[in-house]
Amino acid sequence: MNPELRFTDVVAQARPQKRKDDIRNFEYSYRAEITSIYPLTDKETLYRIQIVDPDERRRFSFVPGQFIMLEMPGIDEAPFSISSSASIRGEVELCIRSVGNLTNFLPRVRRGTHVGIRGPFGTGFPMQQMHGQNVLLIAGGLGLVPLRSPIAYVLENRSHFRDVNIVYGTKSPAQLLFTYQYEMWRKDDIDMDIIVEKADQSWKGPVGLITDPLKDILSGRDTEFYYNTYAIVCGPPVMFKFVCNMLNEFHIPMQKMFVSLERRMHCGMGKCCRCNVGSTYTCLTGPVFDYWTVMNLKEAI
Ligand SMILES: Cc1cc2nc3c(=O)[nH]c(=O)nc-3n(C[C@H](O)[C@H](O)[C@H](O)COP(=O)(O)OP(=O)(O)OC[C@H]3O[C@@H](n4cnc5c(N)ncnc54)[C@H](O)[C@@H]3O)c2cc1C
Ligand code: FES
């Protein structure tokens, strides 16, 4: 690939000839079944959803960072980040927070319930481009949900990466997601820092902001480290600014910093104009953007 070409340029160039096929795929709803339900916190639940038809299952694939539209027949449809390994075809894991119409209904469903899924939609993280480099995987709050798919990619291809650090922060210990996986991630030569803004009696770890452990990781490294580091940042928009500013201060190239921008979405395919930032539809050109592009998008963060 031409190193001068940015990730978003590649996506934009690929679009014209793919667009007709994409729209056909995007409108198609796969019949799928909820195969497991696992409560993670009092607000978030992990659902494993499998496409029913074996042929369709083989055809359905995605890349880390993409999302799908989940439809509960008769209730509603909404976008959710895919939170599982992209190497498993025909199946997705979604971690869903109860906030409204669809998501408050979901805790009532049982294993075996049929749902519809459309997609996958949007751009993903350029994982192969990161081979041979250091990787910082940074998440705040619900941001660990989209980050779990690139984490799975890194674990499955660990020898392709140099230093890997996960930095995860939440408001309180009760909001930490996927706690049962941290030890497994660490075993695979991955450093993981967890920090909470407000401790409770059970919490023995550090208290503060996500930028605290990030600063420790970045301080005292040589220029070669900064130049050869990619960062993936997922979380609330307020976090992007502080985290990306710090990465910037340490001279991590902006084209090597990737963020996932979530906007309200309805159609997922550039038709309804709900998700635009300026003239850019985040459902098509995003949700994954490099930070250079984000800096040039008015009101993106
Ligand atoms: C690309 C993408 C990926 C997402 N991934 C996840 C995920 O992995 N897990 C998850 O729990 N949620 C995720 N969301 C958010 C999720 O789509 C919304 O919470 C969902 O639409 C709520 O549906 P509902 O019918 O339950 O809520 P509604 O009844 O539609 O709305 C409930 C409340 O949430 C507000 N709201 C709805 N959508 C959004 C939004 N996108 N941003 C801010 N406020 C919103 C509404 O204004 C309302 O106040 C994602 C959103 C996008 C765009
Ligand atoms: S969600 Fe409809 S245009 Fe993006």
List the helices and strands and how they pair.
Layout: H1 7-27, E1 29-39, E2 44-51, H2 54-59, E3 67-72, E4 76-81, E5 91-97, H3 101-105, E6 114-121, E7 134-140, H4 144-156, E8 164-170, H5 182-187, E9 191-196, H6 211-218, H7 223-227, E10 229-234, H8 237-249, E11 257-260, E12 276-277, E13 280-281, H9 282-285, E14 288-290, H10 291-295
Parallel strand pairs: 7-8, 7-10, 8-9, 10-11
Antiparallel strand pairs: 1-2, 1-6, 2-5, 3-4, 3-6, 11-14, 12-13
Bound molecules: flavin-adenine dinucleotide and FE2/S2 (inorganic) cluster.
Residues 265-268, 270-275, 281, 283 line the site of FE2/S2 (inorganic) cluster.
Task: Please give a handful of descriptors for the protein shown.
301 residues; binds FE2/S2 (inorganic) cluster; 2 domains; 6-stranded mixed β-sheet; disordered N terminus; Elongation Factor Tu (Ef-tu), domain 3; binds flavin-adenine dinucleotide; 10 helices; alpha/beta; Rossmann fold; 29% helix
Choose one word for the global shape. globular
The overall pLDDT average reads: 89
Low-pLDDT ranges: 1-8
Ligands bound to this protein structure: flavin-adenine dinucleotide, FE2/S2 (inorganic) cluster
In whole angstroms, how far apart are the ends? 29 Å
- How many beta-strand runs? 14
Work out the radius of gyration: 19 Å
State the order of secondary-structure elements, H for helix, E for strand: HEEHEEEHEEHEHEHHEHEEEHEH
**Fourth CATH level, the homologous superfamily of the largest domain:** Nucleotide-binding domain of ferredoxin-NADP reductase (FNR) module
Biggest sheet, in brief?
6 strands, antiparallel
What is the spatial order of strands in the main beta sheet? 4-3-6-1-2-5
Query: In the CATH hierarchy, what is the architecture of the largest domain at level 2?
Result: 3-Layer(aba) Sandwich
What is the chains' assembly state? single chain
Please tally the helical runs, counting DSSP H or I stretches of 4 or more residues. Answer: 10
Structural class: alpha/beta
Amount of helix: 25-40%
Number of domains: 2
Percent strand equals 25-35%
Q: Which CATH class of the largest domain applies here? A: Alpha Beta
